[in-house]
Fold Mitochondrial import receptor subunit tom22.
Amino acid sequence: MVQLTEVEDEHFNEKPLPSKNNILLASDDEDEDYTDTESEISNDEEFELETETLYERIAALKDIIPPSARRQVNSSVSTVTSFAKSSLSFSGKALWILSTSAFLLGVPWALAYAEEEQYIQMEREQGMIRGANEMLSPGLAAENKETQPTL
């Protein structure tokens, strides 16, 4: 069985001593300023404005905006993007449902309607042909009516 023991760092056990002017973080050597030697601070000689992209310029401006404002902007942008994604997703699904329903219901109805229109047109043509035949031979049509038995 493994037994864990906590090892405390001596640095965290000591309380910082205030220096002159009651400043906690200032060192005794106030002539030395804190510098980060590993930072990416460029010299004036190495800085080339032409090679810097627009994204790099905007990314460098993020330190100007306070963290609370950045969080607020970030949350509002994420809210808008999530709303846009859900709206596009819903509209895409609704469009899919409407289009498949139109194909499944509309196409058979359109075919049946076209067939019915063909029958109606065919009946009209037959009626016109009968009317034309009666006009061309009026006596023949009257004789046919008299000789036909009625049911």
